[in-house]
Amino acid sequence: MKKCICILLCIFTVLALSFSGCAVLNGKDGKDGKDLNIYDVYEATNAAREEKGLEQLDFLEFVEQYLHYEVQMTDDGNLRSSINRSLLCSVGIVAKFNYPISESKSFAGSGVIVDIDKENGNAYVITNAHVVYDTNASPSVVKSLEIYLYGNDDRNITGTEPITEVSLVTYALSYDIALLKIEGSEILKNSAACAAVFAESETVNIGEVVYTVGYPAAEGISVTQGIISRENEYIGIDFADGDSSSSDNSGSSYGKEIYVQRVMRTDAAVNGGSSGGALFDASGRILGIVNSKDPETVNENMGYALCGSYVKRLWKLMRDGYLNSESSYGVCRAVFPAEIGFTTDVEFDNVTNLVELTDTVCVLSAYGSFRTGDIIKRVEIIDGSGNTVDGLDVERYFNIDDVLLSARNGDIVVYTVERDGQTQQLRFEPLFENCA
Q: Which of 5, 14, 170, 252 has the most other CB atoms within 10 Å of its CB?
């Protein structure tokens, strides 16, 4: 194993030089690469891919694609490696609120870094809206935020120093997602922190091994493990009465109505303070964002995570400034212009040995060039230069809304529909909703 690692490190060094664009100097003394590590090369690779408009890779995808090394994730050691890597992408959050009839109170939450610029000490962090918003507070929005990185996350130890250069970009109660921004943090510059990546797959499978990384009770960043026990469902979260199923049991409650959210269910333990942390697959890719647990004592091992298929698009919409603080959605987003319905086909795939759900999505009411009965087969977002920004074959009904979160002003939405046995494409300008 040591020989394999040495070989990989040599290849990483060559890759780092090629991505940095720097001239190759005299490397015999080892000084040119003395500060180089595997993850620096990995991050440089993703930076180069981003410039070319390519998808970001997680670390294991990087190893497989650039080094032609196949990683077998059934090995416990590889799972352990993924978990340890995820610790560096995860954060603990302490949110402080003011209340009208009492002194300030602080509550624990969790988050995950999804974009990082360590040279300048900048990063974007995803967490839950209910971590930064409490309807009982005055004002309802969090007063101040502290972020703790792994290894510097035990507040009981003297000298533990949080990141305080944190601002709230926006929050969306309907999605229970908030986006935070770290700017100019010396702690981040000198840390081992990294950015996690989302799973490319739009669906997950029941029985898939997962783990969560959170900051329960602000007692240190920690991990719990389980499986996906249900891949898709809806839960109603009552923010008005402080139902603990809508919070992390930290005592914080918020909102004035019930919001219904699409989630996945896991038996991985979800504890108070875990809200906002990532639910990872065995390869260390983000599958979802933990947001609640079943408060009933008779229902054990029922935790919920917001589906990564829309969160990975939503946070970029927030980052790009499509905001509306007056709306519970928190964002100005594109929506499908007509009413739709769907039927679901259930099959067992004898090749993959998995149950597969496939939806047939139909237009129920005519709109523009849509006709009643049109079957929606695919949706794509095309930018002003003619490039495909996002696109999916419509295999599940939620694929449409998920892709539309990638639409921006000036884009064109192309729907491929089946009508009377023939396939045709319909082009629309994005129909934005909840815009200020």
A: 252
